[in-house]
Design goal:
This protein has 110 residues and is an alpha+beta fold. The protein is 32% helix and 23% strand. The chain contains 2 helices and 5 strands. The strands form 2 sheets. It has a 3-stranded antiparallel β-sheet with strand order 1-2-3, with no helix packed on it. The longest helix is centred in the first third of the chain and has 24 residues. The relative contact order is 0.11.
Length: 110
């Protein structure tokens, strides 16, 4: 039983390390954007936001990107974010801080 537990622990550690390495290497092989410069790492709850076309002058497509390896699956919050994107429940929110006052004006564009 102890040997099985040790083996399982070792396998899990290798899976975690493999996942971490995949997140580091992934930006150079992601084809959803034109270059690594178009990626912004967030880490949690999703790995990257990509801005395809930002390096050029035309339209920009925004991509939410989650890197997974092996048998790993999206967690509950990642699935909720994926579903919100699919349902187009996305807003642009612009926040401005006034020069001399601590007054925040929030503008939502839909």
């Amino acid at each position: 039983a102890i040997n099985d537990a040790r083996k399982d622990t070792g396998n899990r550690q290798r899976s975690i390390i493999k996942g971490q390495i995949s997140e580091i290497i992934a930006p150079w092989s992601i084809e959803s954007v034109n270059s690594v410069k178009e990626l912004n790492f967030i880490g949690s709850p999703i790995d990257f936001v990509g801005f395809k076309g930002l390096d050029g002058e035309g339209d920009v497509d925004i991509k939410f990107i989650e890197v997974k390896s092996g048998k790993s699956r999206l967690n509950k919050n990642q699935r909720r974010i994926r579903d919100a994107v699919a349902a187009k429940r996305i807003e642009w929110v612009e926040v401005r801080v006034k020069d001399t006052e601590i007054e925040i004006e929030e503008k939502i564009v839909q």
